[in-house]
Amino acid sequence: MKSAVTTVVSAADAAGRFPSMSDFESVKGSFDRAKARLEAAEKLASCLDNFTNLAVDAVYQNGTYEQANKDKCVRDIHHYLRLINYCLVTGGTGPLDEWGISGMREIIRIQLLPTAAYIEAFMFIRDEIKINDVMSQQAETEFKGLLDYLINALA
Amino acid sequence: MLDAFSRTVVSADAKGAPIGSEDLADLRKYVADANKRIDATLAITQNVSCIAADAVAGMVCENTGLTQPGGHCYPTRRMAACLRDGEIILRYVSYALLAGDPSVLEDRCLNGLKETYLALGVPTSNAIRAVEIMKIATVAIMTETNTGRKMFKGINSGSGAQCQDIAAEAATYFDLVIEALS
Question: Which of A62, A67, A98, A139 has the greatest number of beta carbons closer than 10 A?
């Protein structure tokens, strides 16, 4: 799976060379952000259920979407947030790309679930929930970056 | 290929659970030890030919028939192949050490290695001995317990004594090679 370290190792292996100084630098560079990422992952894991419920309740309260779909929506939002948690850990978008985005839009559609509801839910998490209360500024930035990435992919 | 981070992700995904504080402790240690890990990897990359040559020479010394006509390291072309393989194994060990996970070593180097050696008529017992010597040499260089000249640069962390844990980790990767050939 793609991450800062595996990218460097793959490139070195393709060229048949040992890891070089510049490889080490790039690995180290990715670790500079690691503290914020891991904090975001940790805090997100602890409020994953809470975020999911807040977002889905907000989206489904005004009756735009069929209530029958609500449970499925909860399940999927929870799934996506878990993948974001994984992305925060790996430091790349690998888990979302491989397990969440490729083919997911088709699956949502074939189940006749509204993609718009998902997008709204993620936008609610991004814009309405006070993420700052549970995690630091840098951690929030990392988390929101991935939310944006997911929203763009689903839209 | 996985690294320490993606390994955690793959095992968490198998359980369907998000990664919480407990699992993150190991990763925080990995990040905190990054400098030591880089120094330890450098201890391999800067001494590759020395480690591989010593190991192959040691293997031959213990079994001098190898370089005699009819031996497995005769003629020099086969001896050179032996040195090359030693360097390749060290290269994959250095990748695994940097990534903090043996998957790259297993997938790209060890998978099918024994079968290849058997097909080529390479005696695996001698190959294992060479890997054992490489393991001992690598650990000694990383922990600065080797005799003779100083081979550990320690540009980031300072001393080899701090690399004990990482050297132990490197030893487990050599053990995987030995296991794969046994």
Answer: A139
